[in-house]
Amino acid sequence: MNGAAPSRLLFVCLGNICRSPLAEGAMRAAAARAGVAVEVDSAGTGDWHVGRPPDPRAIATAARHGIDISGLRGRQVRIEDFDRFDRLIALDADNLRNLRRLAPPSAGALLSLLLDHAPGRQGQAVADPYFGEDAGFETAWADIMAGVDGLIAELRGQRSL
Ligand code: 4NP
Q1: In testing the pocket of ligand 1, which one of 57, 128, 131, 139 has its CB within 8 Å of the most ligand atoms?
Q2: What homologous superfamily is domain 7-155 in, according to CATH?
Q3: Are strands 38-44 and 110-113 parallel, antiparallel or unpaired?
Q4: Mean pLDDT, residues 136-144 taken together
């Protein structure tokens, strides 16, 4: 750790039970490995899964990669999040659009897409695996790791967006 104030990052998807809890777990683990100080949370733009654990397929995917996300619980994005976090990072364009719509004019947080942080993948979405086959969760994991690795590089000051 370099003693700097931790960067506060909120990952945002639709339900907060598949992609954003995976991103939260992946980012927390990658930052710990890299010695980068972060505070990480996740939330959904929808409210269907508030208080629920991640989807069992997301829990299993994280576990295959050595990360336990079973203790996370769903919550919805709150207006205060736009000031409590330095960055709100959406998993796809629909959720980014919703965040832009919700953001108070004075909001302090920067808004971006997760894959904007992955070299060569600007504007791309982490596809929603909820209604698809199990394999979609591994694809989501790989996409999330590309974004997380890019974020870590930025936070280390190696590269800026
Ligand atoms: P997530 O996936 O946004 O990655 O958590 C979804 C989970 C639930 C629903 C949609 C997407 N849903 O419609 O309930």
Answers
A1: 128
A2: Response regulator (3.40.50.2300)
A3: unpaired
A4: 98
The pick from 12, 13, 14, 20 for probing ligand 1's pocket by mutation, whose C-beta has the most ligand atoms within 8 angstroms, reads 14
39 with 9: CB under 8 angstroms?
Answer: yes
CA angle 7, 9, 15 (to 5 degrees): 170
pLDDT band (50, 70, 90) for residue 156: very high
Residues with CB under 6 A from ligand 1: 13-19, 48, 128, 130
Residue 1 has pLDDT above 60, yes or no: no
> Structural domain boundaries of the chain?
7-155
